[in-house]
Amino acid sequence: MASHRRPKQPSRTRVTVLTATAAAAVALTSQAAHADPKPTTNEVKAKVDKLYHEAEAATEKYNGAKEQQDKLKKQVDALQDKVARGQDELNDLRGELGSIATAQYRSGGIDPSIALFLASDPDSFLDQASALDQLTVKQTESLQKIQAKQRTLAQQRKEAQDKLGDLADVRKALGENKKKYQGKLADAQRLLNSLTAAERAKVQEEEAAKERASRATSERVQLSTGSSTPSLGNEAPASNRGAAALSAAATQLGKPYVSGGSGPNSYDCSGLTQWAFAQAGVNISRTTYTQQNDGVKIGRSQLRPGDMVFFNGLAHVGFYAGNNQVLHAPKPGTVVRYESMDYMGTFQFGVRV
Prior knowledge:
Blueprint: H1 12-34, H2 41-107, H3 112-118, H4 122-193, H5 197-220, E1 222-223, E2 230-231, H6 240-250, H7 269-279, H8 288-291, E3 296-298, E4 308-311, E5 316-322, E6 325-328, E7 337-340, E8 347-352
Antiparallel strand pairs: 1-2, 3-8, 4-5, 4-8, 5-6, 6-7
Helix pairs in contact: 2-4, 3-4, 6-7
């Protein structure tokens, strides 16, 4: 006989769980439908390049702080040396004053009028009194010297203390900029690691192609008549100084980019330009932000081989090498090479030293 019992109804708890599960599934499906698509290799590469530019800007600020730190350290050392020598001089003056006081005590322990009255030889006493007066004058001069030296020492100590405070601030900025550029490089590496093996191989091949192009450009370099300046066309060098610096930079092709590198084994962008000009007997400053003031600013149409060229808000610098080519230290993971200005980013201006 068939059962006429009613089917068991699901419990309220079970209904709630099923409803929540269904809602979660719908939400996940909706999120998946609206999730950002995986960035393409070119998009990742563009982000990486942007991070490298930002890291380079932080590197230049780091270099500037490092240069300032070195100068302040020398100033502090010089001031502390002055203070030490001044303290020695002060001690000598105090010793001299002590000797004078001792001599005065021995010579003038009795009131001069009584000593004259008791003296068996008045002429001899008057000679002694004259010597005593001279001692008093010398003592006064010594006291004045001591007071002047104390004032000088106090001023030098304050100046040294102020410089030490400045040095502490610069060291703090140094650490912050170092942390910033290291963070940018780490972000860039994470982006590169997000690529598949095939995508990473493609990026590496693009960089390898640029290296091959640089070597080919180097092989095409023609030496200007009567000059050792690398020339990629018929353009005359900007100046003898620029020509010599460009020639020196060309000898460093293939050297690795290293943040903070200033030669001769590795370079960052401004480290290369500073080193190259030094070989030409010209001292320029260390960072892109200061090198822009080391010569006369010119526009792109005025560029000639040996001019410095600045890009990306002054975060990058290289040498104009003629025929629209730049000789520079590009970015982490690369080497000193030639590269077309068309791939350099936003051109700012040139500087002719």
